[in-house]
Design brief:
This protein is of the alpha+beta class. It is built from 6 helices and 5 strands, in the order E-E-H-H-H-E-E-E-H-H-H. The relative contact order is 0.18.
């Protein structure tokens, strides 16, 4: 995997209504990114193809959120989330993402994962930044397992599951 750039505190403006899109295999290896996603990420297609999708996740993005969404898609469930991405130059951008999948017609197993995005609502990014900071801190100081437990308890306290929680924040 290529080395992630050093983050800088400069946000890339995402246009509402334009749909950035990525396609990966089930190991999160990128196979396609549309032109708008490439523009946002400041990478070209040759930079990203064959690389892990995790190259694009901002260091502020807790692995817990990514793993929980990923596991649901592998279980053949469409899921929404909000993610903070890092560009090739270290700038960041937020997207609300809908993760969908394609099933192999012969094996009936998930074959590809599709990320369809749009500009994330600013109110959601402000609120989620605090939660993401806490989860990332738990991951660094303890483990991914405890970060996931914390998040599951957080959701339980709100009487929500992952999808319902993010559906409150996503405005597709």
């Amino acid at each position: 995997m290529k080395t992630k750039p050093q983050p800088i505190d400069e946000e890339i403006h995402v246009l509402s209504g334009k749909v950035p899109m990525i396609k990966t295999d089930t190991d999160a290896i990128m196979e396609y990114a549309n032109d708008y996603f490439l523009d946002l990420s400041e990478y070209n297609a040759g930079d990203l193809m064959g690389e892990s999708f995790l190259l694009l996740s901002h260091p502020d993005m807790p692995k817990t959120i990514i793993d929980m969404a990923w596991n649901q898609v592998l279980d053949k469930k469409t899921v929404s989330t909000i993610m903070k991405f890092i560009s090739k130059t270290g700038k960041f951008f937020w997207l609300q993402i809908r993760l969908d999948f394609k099933v192999d017609e012969q094996t009936r197993e998930v074959k590809n994962i599709y990320f369809y995005g749009d500009k994330a609502p600013i109110t959601s990014t402000l609120e989620l930044s605090k939660l993401y900071d806490k989860l990332s801190k738990i991951e660094k100081e303890s483990s991914l397992e405890y970060s996931e437990k914390y998040f599951n308890n957080y959701l339980e306290n709100l009487d929500l599951d992952y999808n319902t929680f993010f559906e409150k924040h996503v405005k597709f």
